[in-house]
Amino acid sequence: MFTSLFVGNLSFQATEEDVRELFQHAGTVGAVRIITDQFSGRSRGFGFVEMATREEAAEAIKMLNGRLFRDRDLVVDEARPQPQRGRGGPRSTPKSGHRSTPQNRP
Questions:
Q1: In a 3-state reduction of DSSP, which class is residue 8?
Q2: CA 88, 94, 96: angle at the middle one, nearest 5?
Q3: pTM
Q4: Is residue 72 part of a domain?
Q5: What is the total count of domains within the chain?
Q6: CB of 40 within 8 A of CB of 46?
Q7: What is the pLDDT of residue 83?
Q8: Which of 52, 63, 6, 57 minimizes the C-alpha distance to 29?
Q9: 77 pLDDT band (50/70/90 cuts)?
Q10: Burial zone of 46 (CB within 10 Å; 0-12 exposed, 13-18 middle, 19+ buried)
Q11: What is the secondary structure of 65-101 as a DSSP string?
Q12: Fewer CB within 10 Å, N or C, the chain?
C-alpha cells in the first residue's frame, strides 16, 4: 500500500518528472502530482508523492524535508486525509438568520 507525502515550497518551474527523480533516491515512487491552478494551469507550489512503503516514506521525509531543491527549501511531510466536504450548493446551508418559511417569502 502506498503512503502519500505532501511536498510544499516547490519551485514553480519544477515538473512532476523532476520531483519523481528526486524522491527515487529514497525508494520506489508511485504517483507524483503537482497541484496546478485550475484557470491558469500554473503550479501552485505544492504537490503529493506516493512512496511504496511507510519505511520509504519515512526515509524520504528524513532525506528531503528542508533540502534545497531548485533554490527553495522543500517541506516534506506525511499527507493528511482531505477533510470531507458537503455536497455544496446554495441550499445546503442556510444563511445566518435567514429561514425559508412562508412568513419570509414575498
A1: strand
A2: 130
A3: 0.76
A4: yes
A5: 1
A6: no
A7: 80
A8: 52
A9: very high
A10: middle
A11: TT-EETTEE-EEEEPPPPPP----STTSSPPTT----
A12: C
Whether residue 98 is contained in a domain is answered as: no
Tell which residue, 24, 35, 88, has the closest CA to residue 60: 24
**Residue that has been written with the C-alpha cell 516547490 in this structure:** 10
Residue 103 has pLDDT above 70, yes or no: no
CATH number at residue 66: 3.30.70.330
Rounded Cα distance, 49 and 100, in Å:
46
Amino acid at 80: R
Mean per-residue pLDDT, 49-58: 98
Residue 36's domain comprises 3-78
Which is it for strands 3-8 and 43-51: parallel, antiparallel or unpaired? antiparallel
